[in-house]
Structures are given as C-alpha cells and as structure tokens.
Predict the 3D structure of the following.
Amino acid sequence: MRVIMVSYFLILGTFCFSQSKKYTFSQPKMGSPLNITLYSEDSVKADQIATEAYKMADSLNLIYSDYLETSELRLLSKKSGTNSFTKVSPALWDILKLSIKASKESKGAYDITVGSLVKLWRKARKEKVLPAGNVLKNTLKSVGYQSIILDSLTHSVKLLGANTQLDLGGIAKGYVAQVIVDYCKNKGIQKVLVDAGGDLAMYASPAPRGGASTSDLSSIVAPSGRFDASIRRFRIGITIPNSEELIPRYLFLQNQAVATSGNMYQHVEIKGKKYSHIVNPHTGLGVTHQRNVTVIAPDGATADWLATACSVLSVKQALRLIKTMPNCELLMAEIQKGKLKMWQSEGFEGYLEN
C-alpha cells in the first residue's frame, strides 16, 4: 500500500562504554534494504544477533507477504467469502488485531482490505491509464475492514467479503523493524537502529549515572527542546517533498520509531495529473497531493500505519487523528502552487534540534 520515501538518518557520537563498537548490517528483505545498526562489545555477538534478526524477518515475510502465493496472508485471503473461520499463527493474529484497530482509529484511511485496489492501481500506474469506472466500482466493493471477523478464543479469522484481499503494506515493515529492535534489546544490546525501507525503529539506553561526556556524545536534544547529554539519541533527517534535500532541522529520537511517507519516487502522471502510489481506500485511486508525512510514534507499526493514513487524510483530519494517538507527533510538508507549506502537531517541535 505504501513505499516509504526514506528518512535519512545519521547516528551521532559514540557509545560511552569504551569497548562498545558500531556494527552495520544490510540485506534485501521485503522488497527493500533492511539495515541494522547496533553497538556491541563483541563482534561475534553482533554478527549472531544480526543473523537471527534477518532470519526473523524472513519468517515474518513468509507470513505477511502479499506477493508470495504461499504466504499465510495470501492463503487466508483466498478463503474470503467461504463463511468459515481459519486459525492463524500468533504473528498474523497480532498484526491483524493491530491493523483493525488502526483502521477503526483512522476511519478507514488505513485499511488492510485494499489488496484488490492496490493490484488494480499498480496496473493503472504501469499502463498510465485510470481504471474503468465499472471495474473500479466493483473492486471498491471488496474493501472494508468491517468484513474481517476475529475469534479471540480460537485465534481464528473469517473474511466476509467474497473477493477481499488483505494487504499489510502500510504496517508490516514498521512492525518487523520493531520486532528486531525488541529482540536486540532483549539480547542486551543497548543501542540499535533498524531501517526497514524507510520505517525506522530504535532504542538507546540512558547514559550511565553521572551523565555522558560531551567528548563522547554530540549535542543531543530532549523532548522539551532542551539539549541534554544524559540522553542518547539518534539524529534523523526529513526530506522535502519532490526533492532529495532535507529540511534544515534534524529530529533527535531515542526509544521511538519514525516513518516518512511521500511520492517523490512513486508517482505517475495521467492526463496531466500526478497520482501517488499511495491508494485512498475510499476512492481506489492514488492520492493527488504532493505531500510528505513524517510520524513519530512509540513503535514501528504505529508510525508506519499513521504515515499511510495521514497521507490519505486532509491536513485537518490528519492533525485531528494524531491528537488522539498517545505519544505520537506529526509533520506534513506539501507543495501547493509551487510553494512549500508545512504543518506540525503541537509536540513535534520538541523533537527538533534548536
């Protein structure tokens, strides 16, 4: 449903422990690079953790992929309209619950039942021709998260729609990034950042008692906007719409996630009008505004789906939605009549460098 533009990130400073070193790993997973940056005192341990993390990503992809014919998600979609429940794995059950909650909170701006629409829009983008009206109308009938029925006692799922196809493209990468961060944290890694195709999840432990030496850490900003050397943070840049340039000020984040959604690389022009790759579940077409959406959230899955939903919603609706989400912040940058306009939630400023 969404291919993230990319939030460029820079990791500032060194970890205070003298034996800790930075290790960076990268492998293609889920259709894009999956980058893991972690700090460890032991290179063998770092390699082992990264190896296991990539195995976890592969296992989850076999469950969540909408491209693999034999993925658990695709097999579940094939049973839509059969009036029967299908028991699903814990990993699929968990992300389905999160997705339905996200669909309700966004009033369908994010909707995992858009699989048929996404395929139709991919075809339209490839051929540079809008879908025929009757085809689009019939495809829209298959969309609606309300058609997903969950049985919490048996962890079983029923899809009421006859042609419902599930698509986790707007949540899965962020979810996987968070799973890997949590795994690294549980293994004793005290500083890690995972970039799943632009969906970033991260963890950095507080500095040891007595604070951190400014020679070990670059200037690091606290949520209040005040620089605080006792908190380790990651420095993250945000792109300007339709450009590879970054906005002048960087984000500083610690134990959070951030996702940036936009259409710089993923848009098509049809009859003189630009359409994004991001599909509006209510219209079946790509959104037409030239907008970048950056969301800060407590976890990768939440940042991922909120970035998708706020790309579909109007500016007012997106700002209203973010107010209902605890510990989440939003920045929107949009090109209007050739000029850059920006909107942000009340707490976003506190994460920006002075």
The mean pLDDT is 86. Residues 112 and 168 are 6 Å apart (CA to CA). Residues 81-159 form a domain with the T-fold fold (CATH 1.10.3980.10).
